[in-house]
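Propose amino acids for all 325 sites.
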Protein backbone atom coordinates (compact mmCIF):
# COMPACT_ATOMS: atom_id res chain seq x y z
CA UNK A 1 0.00 0.00 0.00
CA UNK A 2 1.49 3.40 -0.89
CA UNK A 3 1.80 5.81 2.00
CA UNK A 4 -0.90 8.48 2.15
CA UNK A 5 0.25 11.88 0.88
CA UNK A 6 0.40 14.51 3.62
CA UNK A 7 0.91 18.23 2.94
CA UNK A 8 2.50 20.13 5.85
CA UNK A 9 1.84 23.85 5.51
CA UNK A 10 4.47 24.89 8.10
CA UNK A 11 7.97 23.93 9.22
CA UNK A 12 7.46 21.74 12.30
CA UNK A 13 9.87 20.45 15.01
CA UNK A 14 12.46 18.01 13.63
CA UNK A 15 11.05 14.95 15.44
CA UNK A 16 7.60 15.66 14.01
CA UNK A 17 8.84 16.10 10.45
CA UNK A 18 10.85 12.86 10.82
CA UNK A 19 7.78 10.95 12.01
CA UNK A 20 5.64 12.50 9.27
CA UNK A 21 8.19 11.39 6.66
CA UNK A 22 8.32 7.86 8.12
CA UNK A 23 4.56 7.30 8.19
CA UNK A 24 3.40 9.37 5.23
CA UNK A 25 4.51 10.54 1.81
CA UNK A 26 5.16 13.91 3.46
CA UNK A 27 5.46 17.14 1.50
CA UNK A 28 7.27 19.47 3.91
CA UNK A 29 7.76 23.23 4.00
CA UNK A 30 11.36 23.11 5.29
CA UNK A 31 11.99 26.85 5.07
CA UNK A 32 8.60 27.84 6.46
CA UNK A 33 8.05 29.68 3.17
CA UNK A 34 5.00 31.92 3.50
CA UNK A 35 2.83 30.22 0.88
CA UNK A 36 0.76 29.01 3.87
CA UNK A 37 -0.69 32.55 4.08
CA UNK A 38 -2.53 32.05 0.78
CA UNK A 39 -5.47 29.65 0.82
CA UNK A 40 -5.45 29.28 -2.97
CA UNK A 41 -1.79 28.25 -2.81
CA UNK A 42 -2.50 25.67 -0.10
CA UNK A 43 -5.23 24.21 -2.32
CA UNK A 44 -2.96 24.30 -5.39
CA UNK A 45 -0.18 22.43 -3.56
CA UNK A 46 -2.67 19.90 -2.17
CA UNK A 47 -3.91 19.25 -5.71
CA UNK A 48 -0.39 19.05 -7.16
CA UNK A 49 0.62 16.52 -4.47
CA UNK A 50 -2.65 14.56 -4.58
CA UNK A 51 -2.78 15.05 -0.78
CA UNK A 52 -5.10 12.96 1.36
CA UNK A 53 -4.21 14.89 4.48
CA UNK A 54 -3.26 18.47 5.32
CA UNK A 55 -1.37 19.29 8.50
CA UNK A 56 -1.99 23.02 8.94
CA UNK A 57 -1.45 25.40 11.84
CA UNK A 58 -3.05 28.25 13.78
CA UNK A 59 -3.73 31.21 11.53
CA UNK A 60 -3.57 29.33 8.20
CA UNK A 61 -6.46 30.54 6.01
CA UNK A 62 -8.54 27.36 5.99
CA UNK A 63 -11.84 29.17 5.48
CA UNK A 64 -14.71 28.26 3.17
CA UNK A 65 -12.95 29.45 -0.01
CA UNK A 66 -9.83 27.34 0.66
CA UNK A 67 -11.89 24.30 1.56
CA UNK A 68 -14.01 24.68 -1.58
CA UNK A 69 -10.81 24.79 -3.66
CA UNK A 70 -9.25 21.63 -2.15
CA UNK A 71 -8.98 18.60 -4.44
CA UNK A 72 -11.35 15.68 -3.86
CA UNK A 73 -8.37 13.60 -2.63
CA UNK A 74 -8.26 15.53 0.69
CA UNK A 75 -10.00 13.54 3.46
CA UNK A 76 -8.57 15.17 6.51
CA UNK A 77 -7.30 18.46 7.92
CA UNK A 78 -5.34 18.21 11.18
CA UNK A 79 -4.51 21.55 12.74
CA UNK A 80 -1.38 21.90 14.88
CA UNK A 81 -3.29 23.93 17.49
CA UNK A 82 -6.08 23.60 19.99
CA UNK A 83 -7.87 26.60 18.46
CA UNK A 84 -9.62 25.96 15.16
CA UNK A 85 -11.25 29.31 14.49
CA UNK A 86 -9.14 29.49 11.28
CA UNK A 87 -10.83 26.37 9.85
CA UNK A 88 -14.37 26.47 8.48
CA UNK A 89 -15.41 23.22 10.09
CA UNK A 90 -18.93 23.30 8.61
CA UNK A 91 -17.55 23.71 5.08
CA UNK A 92 -15.15 20.81 5.70
CA UNK A 93 -17.93 18.62 7.07
CA UNK A 94 -20.08 19.41 4.03
CA UNK A 95 -17.27 18.03 1.86
CA UNK A 96 -16.78 14.97 4.06
CA UNK A 97 -13.40 16.21 5.33
CA UNK A 98 -12.52 15.31 8.94
CA UNK A 99 -11.00 18.12 11.05
CA UNK A 100 -8.94 17.47 14.20
CA UNK A 101 -7.05 19.63 16.72
CA UNK A 102 -4.50 19.11 19.51
CA UNK A 103 -6.24 19.62 22.87
CA UNK A 104 -4.83 19.06 26.40
CA UNK A 105 -1.11 18.92 25.59
CA UNK A 106 -0.71 22.70 25.52
CA UNK A 107 -2.82 23.63 28.55
CA UNK A 108 0.05 23.95 31.03
CA UNK A 109 2.31 25.87 28.63
CA UNK A 110 -0.45 28.33 27.76
CA UNK A 111 -1.28 28.83 31.43
CA UNK A 112 2.43 29.48 32.05
CA UNK A 113 2.30 32.17 29.37
CA UNK A 114 -0.76 33.77 31.01
CA UNK A 115 1.06 33.71 34.36
CA UNK A 116 4.13 35.29 32.74
CA UNK A 117 2.01 38.12 31.32
CA UNK A 118 0.18 38.58 34.60
CA UNK A 119 3.50 38.99 36.41
CA UNK A 120 4.89 41.25 33.68
CA UNK A 121 1.83 43.49 33.94
CA UNK A 122 1.74 43.50 37.75
CA UNK A 123 5.49 44.03 38.20
CA UNK A 124 6.15 46.30 35.19
CA UNK A 125 8.69 43.83 33.85
CA UNK A 126 8.47 45.03 30.24
CA UNK A 127 9.11 48.63 31.27
CA UNK A 128 12.07 47.59 33.41
CA UNK A 129 13.58 45.46 30.65
CA UNK A 130 13.24 48.28 28.13
CA UNK A 131 14.85 50.73 30.57
CA UNK A 132 17.87 48.49 31.16
CA UNK A 133 18.33 47.65 27.47
CA UNK A 134 18.17 51.32 26.54
CA UNK A 135 20.95 51.98 29.11
CA UNK A 136 18.61 54.40 30.89
CA UNK A 137 18.85 52.70 34.33
CA UNK A 138 20.72 54.85 36.81
CA UNK A 139 20.50 52.52 39.79
CA UNK A 140 18.12 51.34 42.49
CA UNK A 141 15.62 53.90 43.77
CA UNK A 142 12.97 53.51 46.48
CA UNK A 143 10.10 54.62 44.25
CA UNK A 144 11.27 53.26 40.92
CA UNK A 145 8.88 51.18 38.79
CA UNK A 146 6.63 50.17 41.66
CA UNK A 147 4.06 47.64 40.55
CA UNK A 148 1.43 45.70 42.48
CA UNK A 149 1.61 42.27 44.07
CA UNK A 150 -0.59 39.38 42.94
CA UNK A 151 -0.80 38.04 46.50
CA UNK A 152 -4.34 38.25 47.83
CA UNK A 153 -5.75 39.60 44.56
CA UNK A 154 -8.88 38.22 42.93
CA UNK A 155 -8.11 36.51 39.63
CA UNK A 156 -11.05 36.37 37.21
CA UNK A 157 -10.75 33.61 34.63
CA UNK A 158 -12.95 34.06 31.57
CA UNK A 159 -13.36 30.55 30.15
CA UNK A 160 -12.64 27.92 32.80
CA UNK A 161 -11.60 25.14 30.41
CA UNK A 162 -8.38 23.14 30.69
CA UNK A 163 -6.11 26.17 30.30
CA UNK A 164 -8.13 28.28 32.70
CA UNK A 165 -8.02 25.52 35.32
CA UNK A 166 -4.24 25.10 34.95
CA UNK A 167 -3.89 28.85 35.49
CA UNK A 168 -6.13 28.66 38.57
CA UNK A 169 -3.83 25.98 40.04
CA UNK A 170 -0.75 28.16 39.43
CA UNK A 171 -2.43 31.30 40.79
CA UNK A 172 -3.37 29.53 44.02
CA UNK A 173 0.40 29.25 44.58
CA UNK A 174 0.49 33.06 44.45
CA UNK A 175 -2.28 33.11 47.10
CA UNK A 176 -4.79 34.59 44.65
CA UNK A 177 -8.52 34.09 45.09
CA UNK A 178 -10.04 32.42 42.01
CA UNK A 179 -13.24 33.61 40.33
CA UNK A 180 -14.55 32.51 36.95
CA UNK A 181 -17.13 33.20 34.29
CA UNK A 182 -18.24 30.57 31.83
CA UNK A 183 -21.38 29.34 30.08
CA UNK A 184 -22.15 26.95 32.95
CA UNK A 185 -20.92 26.20 36.43
CA UNK A 186 -18.32 23.43 36.74
CA UNK A 187 -18.66 20.44 39.09
CA UNK A 188 -16.96 20.96 42.48
CA UNK A 189 -14.01 18.66 41.64
CA UNK A 190 -13.09 20.96 38.73
CA UNK A 191 -13.98 24.21 40.52
CA UNK A 192 -11.59 23.46 43.40
CA UNK A 193 -13.19 26.25 45.42
CA UNK A 194 -13.21 28.83 42.59
CA UNK A 195 -16.26 31.12 42.66
CA UNK A 196 -18.60 31.01 39.65
CA UNK A 197 -20.27 34.24 38.46
CA UNK A 198 -23.48 34.06 36.45
CA UNK A 199 -23.26 37.63 35.12
CA UNK A 200 -20.54 39.77 33.55
CA UNK A 201 -21.35 42.62 35.95
CA UNK A 202 -20.84 40.50 39.07
CA UNK A 203 -17.67 38.92 37.63
CA UNK A 204 -15.99 42.08 36.35
CA UNK A 205 -16.82 44.27 39.33
CA UNK A 206 -15.36 41.70 41.75
CA UNK A 207 -11.99 40.84 40.24
CA UNK A 208 -8.60 42.59 40.24
CA UNK A 209 -7.07 40.66 37.33
CA UNK A 210 -8.89 39.40 34.22
CA UNK A 211 -7.34 36.50 32.30
CA UNK A 212 -9.10 35.68 29.02
CA UNK A 213 -9.23 32.11 27.68
CA UNK A 214 -12.03 32.12 25.15
CA UNK A 215 -11.85 30.70 21.62
CA UNK A 216 -12.21 33.07 18.69
CA UNK A 217 -15.39 33.44 16.71
CA UNK A 218 -18.43 35.65 16.47
CA UNK A 219 -19.89 34.69 19.87
CA UNK A 220 -17.06 36.41 21.75
CA UNK A 221 -16.06 39.04 19.16
CA UNK A 222 -14.89 42.21 20.99
CA UNK A 223 -16.24 40.79 24.27
CA UNK A 224 -13.94 43.07 26.29
CA UNK A 225 -15.43 46.37 25.10
CA UNK A 226 -15.73 49.83 26.67
CA UNK A 227 -18.87 48.89 28.56
CA UNK A 228 -17.33 45.81 30.19
CA UNK A 229 -14.02 47.60 30.88
CA UNK A 230 -16.01 50.25 32.76
CA UNK A 231 -17.43 47.50 35.01
CA UNK A 232 -13.90 46.63 36.18
CA UNK A 233 -12.37 48.20 39.28
CA UNK A 234 -9.92 51.07 38.65
CA UNK A 235 -6.37 49.75 38.63
CA UNK A 236 -7.28 46.26 37.37
CA UNK A 237 -5.03 44.16 35.13
CA UNK A 238 -6.01 42.44 31.86
CA UNK A 239 -4.31 39.41 30.27
CA UNK A 240 -5.27 37.70 27.00
CA UNK A 241 -3.80 34.40 25.78
CA UNK A 242 -6.97 33.18 24.06
CA UNK A 243 -7.76 34.91 20.79
CA UNK A 244 -7.21 38.57 19.92
CA UNK A 245 -10.64 39.07 18.39
CA UNK A 246 -12.28 38.92 21.83
CA UNK A 247 -10.79 42.32 22.76
CA UNK A 248 -11.95 45.70 21.44
CA UNK A 249 -8.45 47.12 21.02
CA UNK A 250 -9.46 50.78 20.82
CA UNK A 251 -11.41 50.44 24.07
CA UNK A 252 -8.53 48.69 25.86
CA UNK A 253 -6.01 51.28 24.65
CA UNK A 254 -8.32 54.05 25.97
CA UNK A 255 -8.60 52.31 29.36
CA UNK A 256 -4.81 51.79 29.55
CA UNK A 257 -4.22 55.43 28.58
CA UNK A 258 -6.59 56.79 31.24
CA UNK A 259 -5.13 54.39 33.83
CA UNK A 260 -8.53 52.82 34.55
CA UNK A 261 -6.76 49.59 33.56
CA UNK A 262 -3.36 49.70 35.27
CA UNK A 263 -1.62 47.36 32.86
CA UNK A 264 -2.22 44.58 30.37
CA UNK A 265 -0.38 41.59 28.93
CA UNK A 266 -1.28 40.32 25.46
CA UNK A 267 -0.10 37.26 23.54
CA UNK A 268 -2.76 37.26 20.80
CA UNK A 269 -4.07 39.96 18.46
CA UNK A 270 -7.03 40.60 16.21
CA UNK A 271 -5.75 40.04 12.66
CA UNK A 272 -2.27 39.01 13.85
CA UNK A 273 0.57 39.35 13.01
CA UNK A 274 -0.80 42.89 12.58
CA UNK A 275 -1.06 44.60 16.00
CA UNK A 276 -3.35 47.52 16.84
CA UNK A 277 -1.17 50.62 16.50
CA UNK A 278 -2.29 52.18 19.79
CA UNK A 279 -0.49 49.55 21.86
CA UNK A 280 2.97 50.49 20.60
CA UNK A 281 3.01 53.86 22.33
CA UNK A 282 2.00 52.50 25.73
CA UNK A 283 4.49 51.52 28.46
CA UNK A 284 1.83 49.69 30.49
CA UNK A 285 1.19 46.85 28.07
CA UNK A 286 3.41 43.77 27.65
CA UNK A 287 3.24 42.38 24.10
CA UNK A 288 4.32 38.81 23.30
CA UNK A 289 4.32 37.22 19.81
CA UNK A 290 1.71 34.44 20.33
CA UNK A 291 4.04 32.31 22.48
CA UNK A 292 1.33 30.46 24.43
CA UNK A 293 2.27 26.91 23.45
CA UNK A 294 5.85 27.66 22.44
CA UNK A 295 7.86 25.21 24.55
CA UNK A 296 9.97 22.47 22.99
CA UNK A 297 8.07 19.82 24.95
CA UNK A 298 4.65 21.16 24.05
CA UNK A 299 5.30 21.69 20.35
CA UNK A 300 6.54 18.08 20.09
CA UNK A 301 3.46 16.85 21.92
CA UNK A 302 1.19 18.89 19.64
CA UNK A 303 2.89 17.44 16.56
CA UNK A 304 2.53 13.88 17.81
CA UNK A 305 -1.12 14.51 18.61
CA UNK A 306 -1.79 15.83 15.10
CA UNK A 307 0.03 12.83 13.55
CA UNK A 308 -1.80 10.36 15.82
CA UNK A 309 -5.05 11.71 14.41
CA UNK A 310 -3.83 11.60 10.80
CA UNK A 311 -2.51 8.06 11.23
CA UNK A 312 -5.74 6.86 12.83
CA UNK A 313 -7.85 8.04 9.89
CA UNK A 314 -5.55 7.79 6.87
CA UNK A 315 -3.45 4.72 7.79
CA UNK A 316 -5.42 2.64 10.30
CA UNK A 317 -8.92 3.41 9.03
CA UNK A 318 -10.05 4.27 12.57
CA UNK A 319 -12.05 7.28 13.81
CA UNK A 320 -10.01 10.39 14.68
CA UNK A 321 -8.97 10.81 18.32
CA UNK A 322 -9.67 14.54 18.54
CA UNK A 323 -12.34 15.50 15.99
CA UNK A 324 -13.80 19.00 16.10
CA UNK A 325 -17.15 20.32 14.96
C1 LIG B 1 -3.53 27.18 19.66
O1 LIG B 1 -3.10 26.03 19.79
O2 LIG B 1 -4.69 27.43 19.37
C2 LIG B 1 -2.56 28.28 19.90
O3 LIG B 1 -3.10 29.52 19.75
C3 LIG B 1 -1.31 28.08 19.10
O4 LIG B 1 -0.59 27.22 19.90
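Proposal:
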Amino acid sequence: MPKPVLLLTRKLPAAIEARAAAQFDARLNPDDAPWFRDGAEIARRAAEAGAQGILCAAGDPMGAATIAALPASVRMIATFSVGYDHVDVAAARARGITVTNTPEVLSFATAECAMTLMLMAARRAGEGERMVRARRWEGWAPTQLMGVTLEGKKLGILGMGRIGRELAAMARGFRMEIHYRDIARLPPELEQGARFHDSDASFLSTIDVLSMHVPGGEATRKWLNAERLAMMKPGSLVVNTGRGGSVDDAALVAALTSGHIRAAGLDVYDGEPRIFEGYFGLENVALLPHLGSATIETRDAMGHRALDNLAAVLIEGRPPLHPVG
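The pocket of (2R)-2,3-dihydroxypropanoic acid is lined by residues 58, 81-83, 106, 292-293 (CB under 6 Å). The CA atoms of residues 198 and 314 lie 43 Å apart.
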